[in-house]
Predict the 3D structure of the following.
Amino acid sequence: MDSSSFISAIVLLVLVTDPLGNIPLFVGLLRQVDPARRQRIIVREVLFAFAILVFFALFGQRVLKLMHLTDTSLGIAGGVILFLIALKMVFPHPEGRNGHPLHGEPFLVPLAIPFIAGPSAIATVLLLVSREPHRIWEWLGALSVAMAVSAIVLGFAEKISDFLGEQVTMAFERLMGLVLTAIAIEMLLAGIQKFVQQIHVIAV
């Protein structure tokens, strides 16, 4: 196992699932829920998100083949999606990601999807597996670690929010957004480079 790429995959997956940035969202949406149920809801939603991402890791390649999508297009699309998500992290909307408050106990949407297992997380999982499908168990291991990090951070969301305060939490999210922007640009450039190489081979 290449430990450096395994750790890089964990870091990337933690960044795209963005547990720290999800803290104010989870706190706000679960504020109206019975405190005794909040931890159960968080664990449930993280498990939902984990199951969705595992599904795309295991069967995403078949979906891509059915839709006639290539690794090159996936890499470019993934870079674009990550870049857009990173911009929202650096320049957050004043009303939050969801825009409008929800009523009642959240179920699957919007906590599991799209806050944890959003388009950027799904695209990242698909990209990891498509590039090196023989390392599927490593990517599933990295995904498991990233989901465990999300569960721990979100499980202590209220305490972390109270301890850090809103301004510090936003500063951390923007810092992660800057890192994710650089990763998105690298993915986008790698996809474009591969596309140019394919055009050159066809031309020759």
Summary: The CA atoms of residues 153 and 160 lie 8 Å apart. The longest helix spans residues 157-203. The chain has a mean pLDDT of 82.
